[in-house]
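G., the chain you wanted modeled:
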Amino acid sequence: MALETGSFISDLNSSNPQSSDSVSQADDHIRLIKSTVKATFPNVTGAVTKTHSQINDLLEKAGGTMTGNLTLAGAPSSSLHAATKAYVDSGDSSKVDATRTISTGTGLTGGGDLSANRTLSISSGGVGSTQIADAAVTTAKIADAAVTPAKLSQVLTRATSQATTSGNTKDFNDIPSWVRRITIQFQGVSLGAAGIVRIQIGDSGGLETSGYVGTSGLVSFHSYSITNGIGVDLNSSTLTFSGIVTLENISGNMWVSSHTLGASGGYLVLGGAHKELSATLDRLQVAATDTAGATSGSISFDAGSVNIFYE
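Predicted structure as tokens:
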């Protein structure tokens, strides 16, 4: 009699039992069918109500296509959980739409929509006082040595030099409102007859012609002129002198100097000079010399100090 062996439904032979098999082995076939069915569906403890079509349409674990909506139990609590539509919509609501644009405004370039990375740049000359709030830029925000005198237009601005070879007035107009220091430079100036040089100042109403208080005099105890340097008359071994010598660039490589010093004995030392260099000034020397400007071992400094300040 044909009786197969098996553990699951797939092991059953649909050709058994054969017609020639004896009826006495029918119970063996029934027991085999029951054991394979129970082994194949070990966890089925109730009625299976799904139709064969519904069972056949079950979504594969490896993936598949759903023909209807899937309702989730709630928002995901783990990074690998499926996300509900409400959860996704909530996250999207905080994102900026790619069609939103960045406008650069005055002095900036590089704007556009958010469909790509944007780099904002300051256009040349695009940032002025109207774009910077009062007190917005402080020394703490500027790196040391980041701003040099050559980049500052309002430190020392030189007007156009005017020749004093004729006429009796030389006007310098349109002086900016931010000016707080004016140095008037003279180089080899002389008058055609005995007189003085008058300086007047004014505003939008014109030059002021009255109300000045002051005096000027020519002090001449003794004087020395040298050609190998700017001479400062300190011809004394007993007096101490204090004061200022000013050097200023008037045009090109031409420099003018003036000095006013006071001596411990009640004397004044006044003077001025000019010198044109062959290239840009980059050094100076202060020396003790004789009255002809020559250094020697017999004349040397013996007190005080000297320093320079430049702007």
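The longest strand covers residues 241-251.

Shout if anything looks off.
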